[in-house]
Specification:
The complex is a heterodimer of chains A (419) and B (128). Chain A is of the alpha/beta class and 419 residues long. Chain A contains 13 helices and 13 strands. Chain B has five helices and three strands. The chains are: A alpha/beta (419), B alpha+beta (128). Chains A and B meet through helix 9 and helix 13 of A and helix 1, strand 1, strand 2, strand 3 and helix 2 of B.
Chain lengths: 419, 128
């Protein structure tokens, strides 16, 4: 490994490490082998259309879909009749937000959401602004959580929907869902949560928490890509305008032939998550903790972005001061991670989530997101921590900012030429 | 991002990383860019009494393209006169490294860095 500082033990001499090491579990997750096993029959012999009423090919496909639906419902404490399948959380978010807003637009025309939501929520809201809705984008505190007083002030009698994600994909923080639901309901607004990064990672109970709509993503919970779900409360009934018109499948809310294989996949993924969430979290928490403590012991001036307590264990978004994110990622080719740096996005602007936390631009440029998951091993995180320490150290030796800091110069006092 | 072999080489094996004494009369220091933009380059040249750049060092906070551009520039200025070094164009840098379009600004910054280092040296010697 060309890191110029010598003695890194080669990956080949460490058992059970497959390079590059996957540490991007928020971007997507691998299929749990058990999920693939459950799906396979529906790609081979059991290929029927679940909406075919008249023969056993259809009946067996339908049975599989309904069993899967039940597993998704169980994971979130819902009734199976409240779960509809979609093509993914993006579609679920579109359906929930547009569907509810448009159904109610003659009575209420305001929406409240948060600046750190996923792009599909923000873009959907922007689209609705063009249709005449007033949208309030709440700021977040430095720890990434919303201020409940801000929320209370923003929700009015004209608010149709409050949409706040359960877990943020970039920084892993968990919003106070039950409290948010309460505030939304005080003024008669619905509460939707994009739970793509939360399902299977934090306990979710739509009734205990008062959630009216919830978006679920298959490929974030070791299920297949291309399938998601939307929880739509029945008591009291939430009604929405379908965004996919056609044969009226999914109780008229989402037309289109369901893929039994994909439904079975997300169902099995949810079943496994329900049974193994606690054990998974404990193991992942230990790995993330070890990784962070190892790196922190050897590298000064590193910062975790997002609340340290209200978070999922499998996410660590870390800023490495004085080292630029893309240059760091280039030097850790053995690790598959993602960066909040501008250089890795198409624009020159750093991550809007980090910006919303108030992370200063130069620190935002230095951020790396590490995602740990069910299949991450201790050997992998030891190797990863080692790699990070070596590469950050080397880049700091090359950094004029690090040099200035070592010389006691206050970087903030310098007049930089704009370019 | 898919970078050219030359670019990756400069990133993995950067040339002339380090610092010269900025208080030395024969050293010109250029510091360009801004942390908020994600690019800061410090380029230093040591000029011989005959007016030739006999040594160059750099330090860069920036992406792979920025590091490669500044590393390349320290190679190119060595042995040149100040006037010759001032003719180095960002387009030459970008072409040599095959910079993707979204990274051209890194080569512009490297060109600015040389010019700033030359200007600093000249200012120390009462020239404009």
């Amino acid at each position: 490994m060309a890191d110029g500082t010598g003695e890194t033990v080669a990956a080949e001499s460490r058992p059970n490490i497959h390079l590059p090491i996957y540490l991007d579990y928020q971007a997507t997750t691998p299929l749990d082998p058990r999920v693939l096993d459950a799906m396979m029959p529906y790609f081979t012999g059991k290929f029927g259309n679940p909406h075919s009423r008249s023969h056993s090919y259809g009946w067996e496909a339908e049975e599989a879909v309904e069993a899967a639906r039940e597993e998704v419902a169980k994971l979130i404490g819902a009734d199976p009749r409240e779960v509809i399948f979609t093509s993914g959380a993006t579609e679920s978010n579109n359906l929930a937000i547009k569907g509810v807003a448009l159904f109610n637009k003659d009575r209420r025309n305001e929406i409240v959401t948060v600046v750190t939501e996923h792009k599909c929520v923000l873009d959907t809201c922007r689209h609705l602004e063009q249709e005449g809705f007033k949208v309030t984008y709440l700021p977040v505190q430095q720890n990434g959580l919303i201020d409940l007083d801000d929320l209370r002030a923003a929700v009015t009698e004209k608010t149709v929907l409050v949409s706040v994600m359960a877990v943020n994909n970039e920084i892993g923080v968990v919003q106070p869902l039950a409290e948010i639901a309460k505030i939304a309901h005080e003024k008669g607004a619905y509460f939707h949560t994009d739970a793509a990064q939360g399902v299977g990672k934090i306990p979710l109970d739509v009734n205990a928490m008062g959630i009216d709509l919830m978006s679920i993503s298959g490929h974030k919970v070791y299920g297949p890509k291309g399938i998601g779900a939307l929880f739509v409360r029945r008591k009291p009934r939430v009604r929405l305008v379908a965004q996919m018109n056609g044969g009226g499948q999914e109780r008229g809310m989402r037309s289109g032939t369901l893929s039994p294989a994909l439904c079975v996949g997300i169902g099995e993924a949810c079943r496994i998550a329900r049974e193994e969430m606690t054990a998974d979290n404990e193991r992942i928490r230990h790995l993330a903790h070890k990784f962070y403590e190892t790196v922190k012991a050897k590298l000064p001036d590193i910062y975790v972005n997002g609340d340290l307590e209200q978070r999922i264990p499998g996410n660590l978004n870390i800023s490495f001061a004085y080292v630029e994110g893309e240059s760091l990622i280039m030097g850790i080719k053995d690790l598959a991670v993602s960066s909040g740096s501008a250089c890795t996005s198409a624009s020159l602007e750093p991550s809007y989530v980090l910006r919303a936390l108030g992370v200063e631009e130069e620190l935002a440029h230095t951020s790396i997101r590490f995602g740990f998951g069910r299949f991450t091993t201790e050997a992998e995180i030891d190797y990863a921590a080692d790699t990070i320490v070596k590469r950050v150290s080397k880049l700091r030796e090359m950094s004029p900012l690090w040099e200035m800091v070592q010389e006691g110069i206050d970087i903030k006092s310098i007049q930089w030429a704009d370019h | 991002m898919a970078y050219s072999e030359k670019l990756v080489d400069h990133y993995e094996n950067p040339r002339n990383v380090g610092s010269l004494d900025k208080n030395d009369d024969n050293v010109g220091t250029g510091l360009v860019g801004a942390p908020a933009c994600g690019d800061v380059m410090k380029l230093q040249i040591k000029v011989s009494p005959e007016g030739l750049i006999e040594d160059a060092k750099f330090k860069t906070f920036g992406c792979g393209s920025a590091i490669a551009s500044s590393s390349l520039v320290t190679e190119w200025v060595k042995g040149k006169t100040l006037d010759e070094a001032a003719t180095i164009k960002n387009t030459d840098i970008a072409q040599h490294l095959a910079l993707p379009p979204v990274k051209i600004h890194c080569s512009v910054l490297a060109e600015d860095a040389i010019k700033a280092a030359i200007a600093d040296y000249k200012a120390k010697h009462g020239q404009s």
